[in-house]
Automatic annotation (TrEMBL):
It comes from the Bacteria. Keywords: FAD, Flavoprotein, Oxidoreductase. It is an enzyme of class 1 (oxidoreductase). GO terms for molecular function: glycerol-3-phosphate dehydrogenase (quinone) activity. The keyword Flavoprotein applies. This is Anaerobic glycerol-3-phosphate dehydrogenase subunit A. Residues 131-182 form the BFD-like [2Fe-2S]-binding domain. The keyword Glycoprotein does not apply. Its EC number is 1.1.5.3. PROSITE patterns: FAD_G3PDH_2. It comes from Escherichia coli. The gene is glpA_1. One of its GO terms (biological process) is glycerol-3-phosphate catabolic process.
């Protein structure tokens, strides 16, 4: 660590669940907890899903949806676990062969971020292939796609969706370009 440059550090809140009979908090649950407030507190119509980690969000959504559906009398099984995430319908290798118009470093970064949705924002136009963020290999076409299809309204949204400003320059070289494109698109 002493010989490396730290670029950023992140922290976040994790919804751990303490037991009602453990005021010390030493036995905090790190698992997923589904609370039916009708059974627990006498409050009909309230369900809480908590605990878990970012990687378990689909399972948590399935549990919560199943609980709500049971209350509504819907017995159809949830299909969340069977559905592919957007952009992951085909293997990355197949998508990489479809986007040969991009230089190799851009191609790999784009497919990593957007999967099989990458061809949707490719264009032969020079503007679309121009780099906005050199550190993270983000093009103007990707910025336009994010604004028009991924609910991007600010530089912070754009950073989450494309990694603009997350490279070694931390936005120093690309923030103005990205902001200008946000206004254009």
């Amino acid at each position: 660590m002493a010989k490396t440059r730290i670029l950023r550090a992140y922290s976040g809140v994790r919804p751990l669940v303490a037991s009602d009979d453990d005021p010390s908090g030493r036995n905090v649950s790190r698992g997923i907890v589904l609370l039916d407030h009708a059974e627990r507190d006498g409050l009909d119509g309230f369900i809480t899903i908590t605990g878990g980690k970012l990687m378990t969000y689909r399972l948590m959504a399935e549990w919560a949806t199943d609980a709500v559906c049971r209350k509504l009398g819907n017995t159809r099984p949830c299909t969340t676990a069977d559905l592919a995430l957007p952009g992951s319908q085909e293997p990355a290798e197949v998508t990489l062969r479809k986007v040969i118009s991009l230089p190799a470093p851009l191609r790999g970064s784009a497919v990593y971020r957007h999967g099989d949705r990458t061809p949707a924002w490719l264009s032969e136009g020079r503007l679309h292939r121009s780099l906005v963020c050199e550190c993270e290999a983000v093009t103007a076409g990707e910025v336009q796609y994010a604004v028009e299809n991924l609910n991007v309204n600010s530089l912070l949204d754009l950073r989450r969706r494309t990694r603009v400003g997350m490279g070694t320059c931390q936005g120093e070289l690309c923030a103005c370009r990205a902001a200008g494109l946000l206004q254009t698109f």
